[in-house]
């Protein structure tokens, strides 16, 4: 929301509510820290990938990258997600390649289709972990989001920060977009900066696209081939302008840019009206999982992959490998 990027009269009018939000959230966290409210401790290490602000920081590509890195090292990893945006009321639930994004959420389906990881959804993270461990032998659980879900004990915390927008106007909800104050970053094991300019101690991440994939034929084309004709781009993610700017940065001319709400479901008529059959319609991978059932031949999605320096990769993975190895010795 643009309101959260600047300070205005409305910001100051809402600031007492932000103070109340801070007081409630701090009290709740303190109750968990003092063990007055009980946290669930999983029998395997838990790593949370979260954020301190609302929406669109690049969390999902980090989860995909981490799963792929750990799988390559022989680590048996599972992922839990709330399944935000899905319509299902059946929890906990395993997500598969054929799961409906409309029912279980777009991000869980994307993660499973990209990595083949074991993934369960439920607002109750404990339920998801217990389901995964009853079905699979795992070394580590990754929680996609849930930094503020203190009912789940965690061993490692990563926070993803949008390097361009950073922390907006600096206010907590509802006057700003923050769930916790930036001072919270001093207490986590890693801060990942998505684009922009990283601050001291942050791990810099870029999201790199190479090609577009056709939703109907699954044909892959280099994105340079889309510079020859004007395209239409859509994005139903936390911060749609990031996707549009990425495409334009690659030399792709956009006849139209249409941003939707994060996790918004789509209909055929809604998208078909945006681009004629001879005009490529480009979308994010997260949008594509919601459009498979009615995809058209001129629809393409652009997958992105998280990239880190060798130094950051080593720094991020080492504590995880040590945790897993330590648990392995106990067993």
TrEMBL record:
Its EC number is 2.7.1.130. Pfam families: LpxK (PF02606). Gene3D superfamilies: P-loop containing nucleotide triphosphate hydrolases. One of its GO terms (molecular function) is lipid-A 4'-kinase activity. Pathway: Glycolipid biosynthesis; lipid IV(A) biosynthesis; lipid IV(A) from (3R)-3-hydroxytetradecanoyl-[acyl-carrier-protein] and UDP-N-acetyl-alpha-D-glucosamine: step 6/6. Keywords: ATP-binding, Kinase, Lipid A biosynthesis, Lipid biosynthesis, Lipid metabolism, Nucleotide-binding, Transferase. The keyword Thylakoid does not apply. It catalyses: a lipid A disaccharide + ATP = a lipid IVA + ADP + H(+). ATP binds at residues 53-60. Coiled coil: none annotated. It comes from the Bacteria. SUPFAM superfamilies: P-loop containing nucleoside triphosphate hydrolases. Transfers the gamma-phosphate of ATP to the 4'-position of a tetraacyldisaccharide 1-phosphate intermediate (termed DS-1-P) to form tetraacyldisaccharide 1,4'-bis-phosphate (lipid IVA). Belongs to the LpxK family. This is Tetraacyldisaccharide 4'-kinase. It comes from Haemophilus sputorum. The gene is lpxK.
């Amino acid at each position: 929301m643009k309101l959260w990027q600047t300070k205005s009269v409305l910001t100051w009018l809402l600031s007492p509510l932000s103070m109340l939000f801070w007081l409630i959230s701090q009290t709740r966290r303190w109750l968990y820290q003092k063990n007055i409210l009980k946290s669930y401790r999983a029998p395997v290490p838990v790593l949370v990938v979260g954020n301190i602000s609302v929406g669109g920081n690049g969390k999902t590509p980090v989860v995909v990258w981490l799963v792929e890195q750990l799988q390559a090292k022989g680590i048996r990893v599972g992922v839990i997600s709330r399944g935000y945006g899905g319509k299902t009321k059946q929890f906990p639930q395993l997500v598969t390649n054929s799961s409906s994004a409309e029912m279980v959420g777009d991000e869980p389906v994307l993660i499973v289709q990209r990595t083949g990881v074991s993934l369960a959804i439920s607002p109750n993270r404990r339920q998801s972990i217990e389901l995964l461990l009853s079905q699979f032998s795992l070394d580590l659980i990754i929680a996609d989001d849930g930094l503020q879900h203190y009912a789940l004990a965690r061993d490692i915390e990563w926070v993803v920060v949008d390097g361009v927008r950073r922390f907006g106007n600096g206010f907590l909800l509802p006057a700003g977009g923050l769930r916790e104050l930036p001072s919270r970053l001093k207490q986590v094991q890693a801060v990942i900066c998505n684009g922009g300019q990283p601050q001291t101690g942050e791990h810099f991440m870029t999201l790199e696209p190479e090609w577009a994939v056709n939703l109907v034929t699954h044909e892959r084309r280099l994105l340079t081939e889309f510079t020859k004709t004007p395209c239409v781009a859509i994005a139903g993610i936390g911060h749609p302008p990031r996707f549009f700017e990425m495409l334009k940065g690659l030399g792709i001319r956009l006849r139209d840019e249409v941003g939707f709400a994060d996790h918004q479901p789509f209909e055929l008529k809604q998208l078909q009206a945006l681009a004629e059959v001879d005009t490529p319609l480009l979308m994010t991978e997260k949008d594509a999982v919601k459009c498979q059932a009615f995809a058209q031949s001129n629809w393409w999605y652009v997958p992105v992959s998280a990239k880190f320096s060798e130094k950051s990769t080593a720094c991020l993975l080492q504590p995880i490998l040590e945790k897993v190895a330590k648990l392995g010795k106990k067993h």
